[in-house]
């Protein structure tokens, strides 16, 4: 079968590999129908994910149809349309039982698919702990509507969930990339008084203004003054930092009001300075990433009810045979791309 493979730093290649087989009684084999490219795939390509194993098939955001299940799998069966969770988790350890599945202590726990084991930019993928990692797509929900459930939407949902947002709040979201937009969609479900979205890219601002006209948008340069003028208590009640730059990290706590919650969703490429003397007396609560991706059933229900719609994020579609072109487009932010769907 065709797979998109991490060969070495800077090099991904479409490659022929044998179809995966069940290796454990809790595994499932999924025939991938639609996959997507995530910025984490680019991090692997650039060599900034040291635990990524050369030779693995990349891709950790996909949907498909269950082809085969191991003898211990009970939640899904062959023929089921499913979302695949980016995180592998056992469901039984201390952290899994508390819902902190990102810190599952199983040796395969955490981000394994498309990083340490073969992922889903391929015709088939083997999913360990299939009862945890797969969720049935409700009838009436298309593959395109469900494509982001296991990764970027899971992240946005988790970020909104832990941020303790109330209906009186002014919420500032920094960054309107795919994860920022998914975060926005999930913050909107909490019905805060105001949402301000800070973004530097004009294409993305245009996308937000077009699709979500009720959301206020602002550039990073104007952000601090704008938030001050458009909040009730001298800053945002909740800030979600989804951009991942040094300047945006600083902006996140500068724009927060005293005793605000600052949720750091972004993955930074280097350490950030937390200048405690500058924020002394501000009494901020910081919450940090990564995603505990265990709410997929709930997000699928919200999609089925029409309360979350991530389909507009798919701006381009390619066949697996042309995935290198899709990467080029996504990596170089060509043609106003937000997300790419790859038909496998
Ligand atoms: Zn991802
Ligand atoms: Zn676990």
TrEMBL record:
Stored Pfam families: ADH_N, ADH_zinc_N_2
Coiled coil: none
Molecular-function GO terms, alphabetical: oxidoreductase activity; zinc ion binding
InterPro entries per the UniProt record, alphabetical: ADH-like_N, ADH_Zn_CS, GroES-like_sf, NAD(P)-bd_dom_sf
UniProt entry keywords in alphabetical sequence: Metal-binding, Oxidoreductase, Zinc
Family: Belongs to the zinc-containing alcohol dehydrogenase family.
Cross-referenced PANTHER family: NADP-DEPENDENT ISOPROPANOL DEHYDROGENASE, ZINC-TYPE ALCOHOL DEHYDROGENASE-LIKE
Protein name per the record: Alcohol dehydrogenase
Source species: Anthropogastromicrobium aceti
């Amino acid at each position: 079968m065709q797979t998109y493979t991490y060969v070495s730093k800077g090099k991904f290649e479409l490659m022929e590999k044998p179809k995966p087989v069940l290796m454990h009684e809790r595994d499932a084999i999924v025939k991938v129908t639609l996959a997507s490219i995530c910025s984490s795939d680019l991090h692997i390509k650039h060599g900034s994910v040291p635990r990524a194993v050369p030779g693995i098939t990349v891709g950790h955001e996909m949907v498909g149809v269950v082809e085969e299940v191991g003898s211990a799998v009970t939640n899904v069966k062959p023929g089921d349309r499913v979302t695949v969770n980016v995180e592998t988790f056992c469901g039984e350890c201390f952290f899994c039982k508390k819902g902190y599945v990102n810190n599952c202590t199983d040796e395969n726990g955490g981000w394994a698919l498309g990083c340490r084991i073969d992922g889903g930019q391929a015709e088939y993928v083997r999913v360990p702990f299939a009862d945890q990692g797969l969720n049935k797509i409700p009838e009436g929900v298309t593959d395109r509507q469900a494509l982001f459930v296991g990764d970027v939407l899971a992240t946005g949902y988790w970020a909104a969930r832990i941020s303790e947002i109330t209906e009186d709040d002014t919420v500032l979201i920094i960054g309107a990339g795919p994860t920022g937009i998914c975060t926005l969609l999930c913050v909107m479900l909490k019905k805060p008084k105001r949402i301000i979205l800070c973004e530097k890219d004009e294409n993305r601002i245009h996308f937000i203004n077009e699709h979500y006209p009720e959301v206020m948008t602002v550039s990073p340069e104007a952000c601090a003054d704008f938030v001050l003028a458009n909040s009730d208590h001298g800053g945002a009640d909740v800030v979600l930092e989804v951009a991942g730059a040094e300047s945006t990290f600083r902006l996140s706590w500068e724009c927060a009001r005293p005793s605000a919650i600052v949720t750091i969703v972004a993955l930074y490429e280097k350490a950030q300075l937390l200048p405690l003397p500058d924020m002394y007396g501000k009494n901020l609560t910081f919450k940090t990433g990564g995603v505990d991706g265990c709410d997929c059933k709930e997000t699928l229900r919200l999609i089925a009810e029409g309360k979350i719609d991530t389909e507009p994020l798919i701006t381009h579609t390619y066949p697996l045979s042309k995935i290198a072109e899709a990467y080029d487009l996504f990596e170089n932010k060509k043609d106003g791309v937000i997300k790419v769907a790859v038909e496998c």
